[in-house]
Amino acid sequence: MKFLKIALAILFVGLLCSSFSLKKKTDKVVYAFGVSSSFADSVVYYTEIQVLDSVTLDKHGFLPEMQMYSYQLKNYLEYQRGLKNRTCMIYYGKNKQKLAKEQTKVLSKIKKKNNVLFQEIKNSDFIFTKPQE
């Protein structure tokens, strides 16, 4: 009987401890899109809004390795499409609808200041990937 009580106590403590370790992380999904322009070209390229794979924002709300995502877009445009000397910017957020509004706002500002054409880069052509650490 004493052995049964000890075994049940150990089982209870084990279940209690494991329930804390089994809590799911409630990390929010991070969305992003990129914009690329050049002074020598009248076409502005922008990506569709994408989910960044396995990414969480840091404690200050910044995207870790943000410059690497910008370089990914720049390298894609240079090596896959042959477009040199591009300036690439990344916009990100946790809410897809707010990010879509931000994308519309950014593109309309660019169009207002310059006489440019827009070309969307589809997700089937380019996807941001998590930089290797």
Give a verbal description of the structure.
The protein is of the alpha+beta class and 133 residues long. The chain has a domain at 31-121. Helices cover 40% and strands 22% of the residues. It is built from three helices and five strands. It has helices at 2-21, 66-80, 96-113; strands at residues 31-38, 41-47, 50-51, 87-93, 117-121. Strands 1, 2, 3, 4 and 5 form a five-stranded mixed β-sheet that branches. A hairpin with a 2-residue loop joins strand 1 (31-38) and strand 2. It is elongated, with a radius of gyration of 23 Å. The relative contact order is 0.22.
Task: Give the topology.
Layout: H1 2-21, E1 31-38, E2 41-47, E3 50-51, H2 66-80, E4 87-93, H3 96-113, E5 117-121
Helix content: 25-40%
Quaternary organisation of the protein chains: single chain
Strand-and-helix sequence, N→C? HEEEHEHE
Distance between the termini: 54 Å
Name the structural class: alpha+beta
Rg calculated over all Cα atoms: 23 Å
Report the biggest beta sheet as strand number plus sense, adding barrel if it closes: 5 strands, mixed
Strand portion: 15-25%
Question: Helix segment count?
Answer: 3
**Strand elements, count:** 5
Short summary of the structure?
This protein is of the alpha+beta class and 133 residues long. 40% of the residues lie in helices and 22% in strands. The chain has a domain of 91 residues.
Which key phrases capture this entry?
single chain; 133 residues; alpha+beta; 5-stranded mixed beta sheet
